[in-house]
Fold these 2 entries.
Entry 1:
Amino acid sequence: MTKKWVYTFSEVDKAEEYGGGEWEGVRGFLGGKGANLAEMTRIGIPVPPGFTVTTEACNAYLEAGGTFPEEMWEQEKDALEKVERETGKKFGDTKNPLLVSCRSGAKFSMPGMMDTVLNIGLNDKTAKAIAKLTGDERFVYDAYRRLVQMFGSVVMDMPGEVFEEVLTKARDKAGVETDTELKAEDWKAVTDEFKSIFKRYTNKDFPTDPYEQLKMATEAVFKSWNGKRAIDYRNAAKISHNLGTAVNIQTMVFGNMGDDCATGVALTRNGTTGENQIEGDYLINAQGEDVVAGIRLTEDLRKLKEEMPSIYDEFEQISHRLEKHYRDMQDVEFTVEKGKLWMLQTRDGKRTAQSAVRIAIEMAEDGLITREEAVMRVTPEQVDFFLHPQFDRKTTEAAKDTGNLLATGLNVSPGAAFGVVAFDADLAEAWAKKEGKQVIMVRPETKPDDVHGMLAAQGILTSRGGRTSHAALVARQFGKPAVVGVSELDIDMGRRQMKVKDVVIKEGDWISIDGTSGEVYAGKLETVVPDIKDPLLLKLLTWADEFRRLGVWANADYPSDAQRARDYGAEGIGLCRTEHMFFEAERLPFVQKMIMTDSSSEQREALNALLPFQREDFAGLFRAMDGLPVIIRLIDPPLHEFLPNHVDLIRELADLKLRLQHCGKLEEIDELLSQINTKERILKRVESLSEQNPMLGLRGVRLGIHIPELTIMQVRAIFEASCLVAKEGVDVHPEIMIPLTCHVNELKVQREVLETEAKKVMEKQGIEIDYKFGTMIEIPRAALTADEIAEYASFFSFGTNDLTQTTFGISRDDAEASFLVEYMEKGILPDNPFATIDRNGVGELMKIAVKKGRAIKPDLECGICGEHGGDPQSILLCHELGLTYVSCSPFRVPVARLAAAHAVLREGKTE
Ligand code: PEP
Ligand code: MG
């Protein structure tokens, strides 16, 4: 038997059988929308009858270069016959004609990215029949012109504006402002006009055969899978390109047949705050697209309770039922046709980070989902959002006082953003990507074609649209701050400017938007990073902690960072880069003196001067991390980084010499000569330290071996600080880490220096400090000889920044600004290896190192302190490798806590 390409909504059991009994499988080949329509039908929710053409059919069609697979069309016609029997109507009939919609529906929701055609089945004859049946010519010709319009733009790729122009003229001619005021005659004329434009643009008559309409619409939906906007969206949402879309053909129900009709969209909980209350928009006497497109000002769903109380009750009950059934917040579409409620769609609703957390916690506490599920329902990116910039209250108050608050709209996606105004998506993208500008994309409303601009922008602002508008949905999904429906904005696309009251903002001017409050400001407002004090988020993170096996530590150099890290839940400091402290103004002269001098006594003096600073730094860290481990890494970067820049020195010297030539005063000459002398000495030293490849030169442990006094000073500072705070009662756990080790002998030498100095300090202080000595693994040779190294180290920490650099042979400082971008664009590398650990290369080296290291010391502490420690995908790998902890920036700690829990909860589950 040939394959089954088509399933009616009442055949979900068969679809399940085919999909191996798995709901996910059903979603895969009926698409999310089709699977949910079928599921709603199964549980007895009123859904207009229809059927789904599978994603497999789409893929077969695309693979065959645009030919329907064998028998698919016949099966589609058979399914249509079943729908005819169910509805008692007939497709193309001149007495009681059936009209259908044709919509896309992939496995993962891609709102508005693909095509839809409504009112299929209308032609001059069926239109007359329906007019007779309903006695409502106005409605029929409004529906008819919509079919021609959608068919033209969706199936035949005609520009939407040509139809809009006709509509504007029709309104002007009738002397009305809105489409709803147009009469039957006006719509008839518009339909005729649309048909003639159709012919002009396509060189074909508008197809009157309903079957031809259906066939062409099905094909258009298939093709739209590979449309630009769908591809852009999938790239951004990381949805696979080979899934294909299903096509859903469904009996039309009409929300525009009079005042006992309505159409709307709703979320079963508040998508912005997560509050357990239905929120939505609707319109009386309208078709669904009017609500989503934001063409007409929608009503708040709460008003439906007054206007159609029994419908609202039924709708509310269905919403609760759907939420319980799917065990998640639902995003639903409905239509009321002549007093009868129909559900047209349900899917898991998109939500903000705050809303995701609240819904997950409340559903778990209500017993609807488990705690594990609650933790899995929130993404690491959503947690990250809590740490995103917000406007400071003081700044916004000041902006209000100075009259810079332009307007307030709907706060649909939280967070603060500022940027220059770009009035279209292409410009927004070009400015952001090519010129590195921060952009706010401003549009009357957004359409799926605008997604690339929205992604490139810092934030989105629209003058039209509601909470469920396209702009709101997309912004929320990608965590972009957005304010929509700011009706005071008078956008003039021709002049590329907008006016609010009497303020004119031109393209390129700065504005700031607050997606949390809905406020729009002129100019650039400073942002601040909030603390994560949301109690619900804290609760979710505590739940996550119960599941995770990986420890989460932080990279911190200063006590204030350490304190923040601890507040965010860090369980240790995985990396303190001691050299960062050397750069401070009061210390740098001593560091430079230490580097410059040839005299060992001067060098000792300089180091002695640095010692108290370092001791105080470390003591501060130990106090902040009382009871927790603190890894202090000895100096790492090449010394020339502490000296002035070579080019600057040459220029300054030339300048001094020129001044000398023109100087007449004796005392000034002496001063200039002295300055020249000093600069020349520095220049000589800079030149002697200069290396062709400093990142592969005298740095890391090599430096510690080259200048043992430096190691001694740092070790002394660490142990003096440890003893000091231990005497204060602090529970101190120092771990001393050697950077850039590539041979075990380097470690042997350094360990001896360390042990001698540590012993000296502890004896002098009369305290025994329990400490660890370990190394970074950031050179492939160290990973490959980890067994030898483990003999001398009691911990490893993967420096994946350098390990990536040295494994790939790609400079970590330059590559991301040059060919690496091209590599990713061309798909040569799937991800940026400096952001996500390269599993097969760097990951494999880590695996070897852990295995070899633990073969010598089974409980060897193995962590990671490269930037990858805060990247969710890399955290998953670290979990798989059995690392002890990940260490990341304090701001990533909450993200890492959740990602580490996800790693456990995902075990054994395929995506
Ligand atoms: C690393 O190389 O991953 C590391 C943490 O050290 P740094 O970035 O300081 O070289
Ligand atoms: Mg390094």
Entry 2:
Amino acid sequence: MKWRALVFVLVTALLCLGFGDGVREQSLREAAQGSGMLIGTAVRPAQLSEMAYSSTLAREFNMLEPEDVLKWEVVHPERESFDFSQGDQIVDFAARHGMKVRGHTLVWHQQNPKWLTDGRYTSGELAQIIEKHIKTVVGHYRGKIFAWDVVNEAFDELHVGELRSTIWLNQPGIGLAGNGSSYIERCFRWAHEADPQALLFYNEAGAEVVNPKSDAIYAMVRDFRQRGVPIDGVGFQMHIEKLRADVASISANIKRFTALGVQVHITEMDVALPVDPNGNPRPEDLQMQADIYREVAAAFLSHPGCTAIQTWGFTDKYSWIGSHSKKTQGAALPFDRYYGTKPAYDGLRDALERARSR
Ligand code: G3I
């Protein structure tokens, strides 16, 4: 009978629209719409062929960042050759799904190829090598990558507040050792020449709160802004351990950086939990983790200068935390190993929904 077919079509349509058992819940990316906040995640290209991975990625996020494949070791494997194949895969995925792309990272002391670290280059040669690297990589993605982590983790952990000894600063360095952050400045200027439209970020670990490391970064950024060095933003990684986040201090830190006129991004958020040998966390820790995601995101959403919140991966199936901690920690992300949402996901989404009207 015709009317039966009509009822069937109507009911199916309503179910699809989410009128089945209550209104269909919004994805993170839908919740972020209207708040002006970008919601992103780090991505590994090998996983894009996994349906659950790619569909979750496209549904939940409006920004992504290659986790590893734009690092020197991958993108610049020989002195005279570049390999953009994996980076291009991710950038194409983003274009197909209307997502923005952050670039990570042009200058770092890790994941550099042997030809570079063992090459015994002079400072002059190194300066030429890094200038070519920055201009080639940024140039390749000109107009496709909207923001770059130009320099990553340049400040030291042990001698807090001081620049880290690296191949770029003083081993042997690009000829600017003893001149403070001059080598960093030079890298920002090269990146700006390669793509004047790209937003250029300094990215750092363990500097999200007010502490001696963030004090040193603040001094550098203030100096750069005063002298017209092209820096547009600061990335706070936000790898949170021990279920502790000093949100008041994070907020104060954001306030002083945004007052300099730079944007602030959360670039690598995860909240590591202790896990049993099967990788399972304690249920009560999942709730505390959710509170941290909610509170940190809410702090970011309350500052107009904060423009992106990014997690370091999205499913516990693929996260650096497991191998890094010899499997004693994990479960750090908003989705579990089976792509189910966790309380952390709800915390993040609550914060985004509440901020819609900011
Ligand atoms: O590419 C090789 C592959 O050929 C080889 O078969 C495999 C065997 O282990 O290793 C692969 O390289 C790994 C690489 O990731 C790519 O997956 C390295 O071993 C592994 O050490 C590397 O780890 C990455 C780490 O940075 C070092 O680059 C993590 O995935 C990545 O999450 C982590 O990300 C960093 C940020 O860039 C900067 N901030 C801290 C953050 C966490 O450490």
